[in-house]
């Protein structure tokens, strides 16, 4: 056959053509593979990423560990406000990743956002770090090492919890064991995590030369929004039925947007739809640092050989994570696989939800037991009142209501220890009570204002030949009343001291560590003496009256305003074990699932969407804490039931979800495309005759 014979018109591709002679290019050298860890398939670069994540999580969780008690004891907010602000902060930390992910995937790339924005601006840094660091670690693996990449996410989560484990144990010690300006050292507890952020930045930059840095792929977030908007508008414009139906509603954008983008958006929307039920799991998990910590403040942390602070109980979560991750990966999942059960990622996440439901059911049972063992608490339009008679003889006390009716009548001897508080009902949230005090032949009338849900002590004292009274509120730690005629300075520890004014001065409140206080050094202007305070136990509130009633010098008369906690904090262990097992099955699996199902151009965006579910979960807690009005055990039951319903919905959605294969989500950048250099004319499809 003549090779130059005239043929029919064909459609072909021109080869690259240059306007001038171009010497033939030498064959490109094979790309040098990235260095590996000890001959394995794990890139060396992930070591820097994992260490960076350890330091960053140490900083974040170390600060969060003491945050609730900082609100409660330092700023003197109530439990609901402390819980709400804690979860509002957590929610903000998980909302900002949307901004960080958009910048990473669209303009700067994951490496630049992580190092220059995320770690430099700590206030907004969590938005730059969270969506990028997990995805950036996944970028270091080649597609043929998918199994190693899956295990990387477990190692990554181990680093998170190793940082959390150490920080949640150390920062409460820095807060409670070190004193700054006579109080708990919150400055040091917040300062050490700040130092770890600097170390995180240094470690991350050390590996910058060996990182694989996928380039950003344009303003992806904007393209996604425009593509979805155009598909919806185009669909409604063509409702007449003249045009053929599309297989997917996003296919209506095909006339304007490339096929690859439409495929990526399809994958993205399928996963985002699956994310809708997820916030409820995080609503439960993140209450370890708020509601569960507040529960621990009402329990006894004395475990015999050592004593746990309430905010140190959170250390159980990362400690158990470090145990459970290898246990589940190497033992439990393999046993399930050998039994012939297909335990997919979505099934693991559903089981994790069920375990979290059980954890909150256990927390509700513990809360009920605490309430049974604890003294009753004043409810709405109620107060608890006790009377302390510091005069030298008996006083008859009558509490009068608004209509001069007698609400309480008691005769109290001098320095008589009252066995209990008396409950008084109010007509409004705040009210004035009138008191009639009969002392010898005198009758003294006085008035004091009270507010609902508070504990009050009416202190009666001598005033010349008559008597007077003052109302003291509060149930926190220790306080002192000084009956001496000289100011007393009291030292409660290495750096804890307080002054009590003369002539029935009342000290400020002070929180102290549990323990024996047999000889507390006290000073007046001309005399030193010591006071035996005895055992100060968990959860108790004490009032000490300094009086000189014997020849042995000033002594402390001890009153227990609130009895000590009797239920051991060890009873929180089952709920921590259940919720941590749920976290391992839900969160670790979800991280790897989000990365594996994400289109290559949207991995950080999908990671940010995953984190956004955490933000929404914290908002749920905030709303319930502020507007729920439930007792604590009922609130735990509510969350448990809500998650159970959500788990059922998620299971149905997961049943119909078809996971994408790697080749289905491979972007253009992953495919082999011929590369040319020089003054070349772009490749175009032409019609020509051979």
UniProtKB/TrEMBL annotation:
* Compositional bias ranges of the Pro residues kind: 24-34
Name one matching Pfam family. PTR2
Which segments cross the bilayer? 58-76, 113-133, 154-174, 186-206, 267-285, 315-336, 348-366, 608-629, 636-658
Q: Which PROSITE patterns match?
A: PTR2_2 (PS01023)
Write out the entry's keywords from A to Z.
Cell membrane, Cytoplasmic vesicle, Glycoprotein, Immunity, Innate immunity, Membrane, Peptide transport, Phosphoprotein, Protein transport, Symport, Transmembrane, Transmembrane helix, Transport
A Gene Ontology annotation in the biological process aspect, one of them, is:
protein transport
Which SUPFAM superfamilies does the entry link to?
A: alpha/beta knot, MFS general substrate transporter
Q: Which residues form the signal peptide?
A: none
Taxonomically, the superkingdom here is: Eukaryota
Where does it localize? Answer: Apical cell membrane; Cytoplasmic vesicle, Phagosome membrane; Membrane
**Predominant location:** membrane
Q: Which GO terms describe its molecular function?
A: dipeptide transmembrane transporter activity; symporter activity
GO CC terms, sorted: apical plasma membrane; phagocytic vesicle membrane
Q: Which reaction does it catalyse?
A: L-alanyl-L-alanine(out) + 2 H(+)(out) = L-alanyl-L-alanine(in) + 2 H(+)(in); a dipeptide(out) + 2 H(+)(out) = a dipeptide(in) + 2 H(+)(in); carnosine(out) + 2 H(+)(out) = carnosine(in) + 2 H(+)(in); an L-amino acid tripeptide(out) + 2 H(+)(out) = an L-amino acid tripeptide(in) + 2 H(+)(in)
Q: How does it sit in the membrane?
A: Multi-pass membrane protein
- For region Disordered, the annotated ranges are 1-34
Q: What does this protein do?
A: Proton-coupled amino-acid transporter that transports oligopeptides of 2 to 4 amino acids with a preference for dipeptides. Transports neutral and anionic dipeptides with a proton to peptide stoichiometry of 2:1 or 3:1. In kidney, involved in the absorption of circulating di- and tripeptides from the glomerular filtrate. Can also transport beta-lactam antibiotics, such as the aminocephalosporin cefadroxil, and other antiviral and anticancer drugs. Transports the dipeptide-like aminopeptidase inhibitor bestatin. Also able to transport carnosine.
Describe its partners and assembly state.
Answer: Interacts (via extracellular domain region) with trypsin.
Q: Which family does it belong to?
A: Belongs to the major facilitator superfamily. Proton-dependent oligopeptide transporter (POT/PTR) (TC 2.A.17) family.
Instruction: List the protein's name.
Output: Solute carrier family 15 member 2
Give the species: Equus asinus asinus
The organism's taxonomic lineage, starting at the top = Eukaryota, Metazoa, Chordata, Craniata, Vertebrata
